[in-house]
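Aim 2 progress update. The chain analyzed this quarter is reproduced below.
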Amino acid sequence: MMKLTKEEKSWVMYDVANSAFILIVTATIPIYFRTLATDAGVSENIISAWWGTATSISLFILAFMSPFLGALGDYKGMKKRLFTIFLLIAVVSAFGFTFANDWQVFIALYIVARLGYSACNIFYDSMLVDVTTNERMDAISSYGYAYGYVGSTIPFIIGVVLIFMNESLGLSADFAVKLSFIIVIAWWLILSIPLLKNVKQTHYLEHQPQLLKTSVSRVINTIKDIRKNPKIMYYIFAYFFYIDGVYTIISMATTYGGEVGIDDTQMLLALLLTQFVAFPFAIFSISFAKKYGVLNVIKKFVLLYAVIAVFGFFLEHAWQFWTLAIMIGIAQGGIQSLSRSYFGQIIPKEKSNEYFGFFDIFGKFADFMGPLIIALSSIMLGESRYGVLLLVVLFIVGYVLLGKVQQYEE
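Predicted structure tokens:
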């Protein structure tokens, strides 16, 4: 492992911080929401539909905001300021839904928290160009995801122990779950401090009069620039399709597992295994990228995700969910880290935030579409599995477009 600078370590640490939140979003929060909604008399397929819709709403809102937030973030001193604002929005909202006992209030606050979390990631991802060089970018991005996977399990395991041993500890089941959420949120906030303290915006544009108006015109100009650069354009479109499937599988795993009857304990343990499997494969992806090329490795992971979607369609038993968790762990770390670092290498550094805003808008529209497909499948067909199978199409289209990107490789 290479030696990291203070800035690189601080940047990686935030991945450890926010990954804890996304882990409970994947694992315990959907289960808790399902319990709240079930107690209120909501049917299983409608619960899946509500969860998918809630995820889609938050990401749909952010998809429209992303380019403009990115344009604002490119100005000197704005990147960290905006990051901090959305971090506080996310954390406060997360504390709010922790204490919500009504499923409708819970889902509303979850939408706001998810919106804040995703907005933070626009600025966080773009900070990659501020903390390292092109040559080290694949490695640093992979270290972020890798240590995020493992580090996020620490507060998660503490929370799971509280939930399973609540009676021995003299806690009610409901309070144990809420306490597990609080631990994760505190972890997220505290481990964000190194990034806030040590990472500086080294690539920026000088402030201009009428900042908002100028930012809007810059967004229009960037759209034109992207259209003139087929390598970036094809890559963004490819990312849009394949990351749709990736995010949907991540965000809907426990909801779908609960719908087909997988035990909550089995799902939690299997998803925990995913984190530990993802750690070494995120690290391995660094050497894979050096040996075979970044795009070739991403394409292999896309194909593996297509297999995962087909396998998920036939999901009925707990052992299949465990197998699915391992397969996801193998692909997840590499595809996310290399996608982020490759984009960081091919864009103008002084406009990194704006370009990552567009990168994010395609990712968020994708993350909007996937859960919506699952939700519509649940409502119209009575179950989600057909929506899962449709994800294969998205992976195939993404794979083909990555081939177009390779045509423009120097």
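The mean pLDDT is 84. Residues 134-164 form the longest helix (31 residues). These observations will guide the mutagenesis experiments scheduled for the next reporting period.
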